[in-house]
Amino acid sequence: MKKSTITALTTGILVATASIATAGEIAVIVKTTNSNFWQNVNKGASAAIEGHAEHTMTFNGPASESAIADQVALVENAINRGVAGIVLAPSDPEALAPVVRRAFESGIPVAIIDSGLAEGSEQYYQTFLSTDNCAAGEQAAALMIEDAGSEGKVAVMSYVAGVGSELGRVGCFVDYIGENSDIEIVGPFYSQSQMATALNQTTDILAANSDLIGIFGANEPTAIGMGRAIEQAGKAGQLTAIGFDGNADLQDMVTSGTLLATAVQGSFQMGELGVNAIADILAGNSVTDFIDTGVVMVTQENIDTPVAQNVLY
Questions:
Q1: For residues 110 and 77, what is the distance between their CA atoms, to the nearest angstrom?
Q2: Which interval of the chain is the signal sequence (predicted)?
């Protein structure tokens, strides 16, 4: 995506409605409300809206990340009630693209957070805020090789196949391992972002691959289930385990040594900067088409430092 600068007043159909859509509800719609990660997005959005008295903010999402039709319905409902703007974390890049186009055609600006939409949809939203998931996957892979070595087996525990963040995060992890080591990748395995599923999958993989040198859990519920399976198998500290995201469970696993590290996104920043971006667009101010919300590799050595504490939740 090119780093161009755009405004609500120069975004096609938004021109017609810019004068009347300057105040009102900003709808924040995430992949699921049943996750500390997304609740941290809510905290960021809530903090941001306090600085925009002319707007209100609502926060919603389906019961699970795999409930894609429910998320589409939430966006459709927001459009139907005439919200001023939408901050959206799409659960599926293809399924959410048509409804984002409908928002555009209705004159409603959209800020996409966390995961991208299908290629060709860029014209229908105004900015994309995300961790550079490919860079984060490569960072996790480099740490895996550094700690575990360059030969052996590494299992990859993923979440929902085809989601934009998963394609970058897991795809670049696997590619980096392949290009920079002789490690054999086992998987990926998809938990559908269900902790219990990830636990059961990891338990089976550990039993079937006693020679694993490492394992990567690519999002919060997956990494928690993975870590618990490692602990239950009595293998904590016996293989290099790297997680993703930063709730209390994962922090405890880093502190205890179950996880060597966990890559933590700026989830608070996604909510905060997403709401601010929509407010800027509605005010006629310019926004860049991509905003990097960052990632921190949290380890035992840095977990208590301000850099880590600012992104943990």
A1: 14
A2: 1-23
